Recover the amino acids of this structure.
């Protein structure tokens, strides 16, 4: 039997970090066959950093504005990713457009989760925008990251019905529950793909 090398993940997050925690739980349950090598945050006071500490995941946090350019910020992050031998970058509520430095270093190795059925409702308010539009259904998308805002090839989508009586809060809860289920599954698929590429 082929012995695959462990795939090392970095999660990038800016806020609450419920997806980060769901990914970690899936790893602990053996459903995701990777190692969470690093949490990267661009918000030094984000709650996700406390979650990382509780779960024993190494983390780093930066203030991108303190750098002279996006490239300088990303080069610093890249040094840490290399030191941690990261294979795959997972954006889980990372509220920043990824620049060339990271995209070129991790081609087709950066994935993102977005709370709408892309290409509908990209941007920061995917849940609210769909709710305000009174559409019958919205959902969750996982996609490869490119230089755009929530663009890039779609890897998986799941729909959520917006039912009578739903509020923005209830819709948000349904979307997050679905994200916590879908994202680890897609990450696991990516891990399998990378493991096969590494033994070629
Ligand atoms: C999620 O809804 C994700 O789709 C979006 O940002 C939110 C992050 O939530 N990109 P959390 O920080 O993982 O709780």
């Amino acid at each position: 039997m082929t012995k695959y090398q462990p795939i090392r993940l970095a999660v990038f997050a800016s806020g609450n970090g419920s997806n980060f925690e769901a990914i970690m739980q899936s790893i602990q349950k053996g459903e995701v066959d990777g190692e969470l090598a690093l949490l990267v945050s661009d918000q030094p006071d984000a709650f996700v950093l406390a979650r990382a500490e509780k779960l024993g995941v190494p983390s780093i946090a930066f203030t991108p504005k303190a750098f002279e350019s996006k490239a300088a910020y990303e080069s610093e992050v890249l040094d840490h990713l290399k030191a941690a031998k990261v294979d795959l970058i997972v954006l889980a509520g990372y509220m920043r457009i990824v620049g060339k430095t990271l995209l070129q270093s991790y081609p087709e190795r950066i994935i993102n989760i977005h709370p709408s059925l892309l290409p509908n409702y990209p941007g920061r308010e995917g849940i609210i925008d769909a709710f305000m539009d009174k559409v019958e259904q919205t959902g969750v998308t996982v996609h490869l990251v490119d230089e755009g805002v929530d663009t890039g090839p779609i890897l998986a989508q799941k729909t959520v019905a917006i039912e009578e009586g739903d509020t923005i809060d209830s819709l948000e809860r349904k979307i997050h529950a679905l994200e916590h289920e879908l994202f680890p599954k897609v990450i696991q698929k990516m891990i399998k793909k990378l493991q096969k590429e590494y033994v070629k």
